[in-house]
Design goal:
Low-confidence stretches: 13-28
Mean pLDDT: 84
Number of helices: 12
Largest sheet: 5 strands, parallel
Number of domains: 2
CATH topology of the largest domain: Rossmann fold
Structural class: alpha/beta
């Protein structure tokens, strides 16, 4: 792993390699659910491929992006997509600046332009929440050209050598829409599943070090049940999300586990039958 990381960093921007980067994952960064996933994503990024992360809410997609940003010592510019996302939110906007009694119009770079010019990591979250007509402006940026023409300034921007793109989607969620094929085909895609077994325990112990082992055991047992019910279609995927499990464990340090699970997991579900099922599963593990 050490030699791989060194080679990958060398392929990146010849950035200084730090010993502490080797320990990033063990110190609260992203924990890969299988031996190859994290390494393969690093290789694809090193080859300047735009990356599409597919997975349910709470599976660690944003944490993965943050870990890569830290590993490469590369600042991250973020775009949170919604139906209201427009070109200004992506590229920037014009504003009037007054100085020495004179008013001038200046352009304030948005996250996309900033990342392109400075060689930052661009993270586009929930890209399938954006209106399809908003994103074609990024097409030339995401293919071999790695450039775009800013419609607000007519400036032709060629991406910095270190510039890279990570985007994330939650498939099948309310408010999302299928990605346009012309956009999707510009990405290399990776599925990001929920953590299981010892990987999940590691994350829980790191996130809530004050939690006692029996409480963690209860949350682990419940997680397995929730995952099975979600796989059978009886629960929404987010019921088994790592984020929700961490929230429940943090609450369980200060209150009974059953109440913690109710607040952190069950009450977030829209369907009453699903809420009742979560509480019933919890009751089987809480004595």
């Amino acid at each position: 792993m050490d030699s791989f990381i060194e080679q990958t960093l060398a392929m990146r921007a010849k950035r200084t390699y730090r010993e502490e980067d080797r320990l990033l994952i063990q110190k609260g960064g992203y924990v890969s659910p299988n031996p190859n996933l994290y390494d393969d994503i690093l290789v694809a990024l090193s080859l300047k491929k735009p990356i599409l992360l597919k997975g349910p809410s709470g599976s660690g997609k944003t944490r993965l992006a943050q870990s890569i940003s830290a590993l490469f010592q590369q600042p991250m510019q973020s775009v949170n997509c919604s139906v209201d996302l427009d070109a200004e939110a992506l590229l920037g906007f014009k504003t009037i600046v007054s100085q020495d009694g004179q008013s001038t119009i200046e352009f304030v770079d948005g996250p996309v332009v900033t990342a392109m010019k400075r060689g930052h990591l661009l993270y586009i979250d929930e890209i399938n929440m954006a209106k399809p007509e908003t994103l074609p402006i990024l097409h030339s940026l995401l293919d071999h050209r790695r450039m775009l023409t800013n419609p607000f300034t007519s400036e032709v921007i060629v991406a910095h050598e270190d510039f890279s793109v990570l985007s994330a989607i939650n498939e099948g969620y309310i408010g999302t829409s299928p990605m346009n094929e012309a956009l999707k085909n510009r990405f290399v895609s990776f599925s990001i599943p929920y953590l299981q077994a010892e990987q999940l325990r590691t994350v829980l112990e790191q996130a809530v070090p004050e939690a006692e082992a029996p409480v963690i055991d209860t949350i682990m047992n419940l997680s397995e049940d929730l995952s099975k019910q979600a796989a059978n279609g009886l629960l929404a995927d987010e019921a088994a999300s790592v984020r929700s499990l961490i929230n429940a464990l943090q609450l369980a340090v200060h209150m009974p586990v059953d109440r913690a699970v109710t607040y952190a997991i069950a009450e977030l579900l829209e369907d009453k039958m699903e809420r009742d099922l979560v509480n019933e599963l919890t009751a089987t593990w809480v004595k």
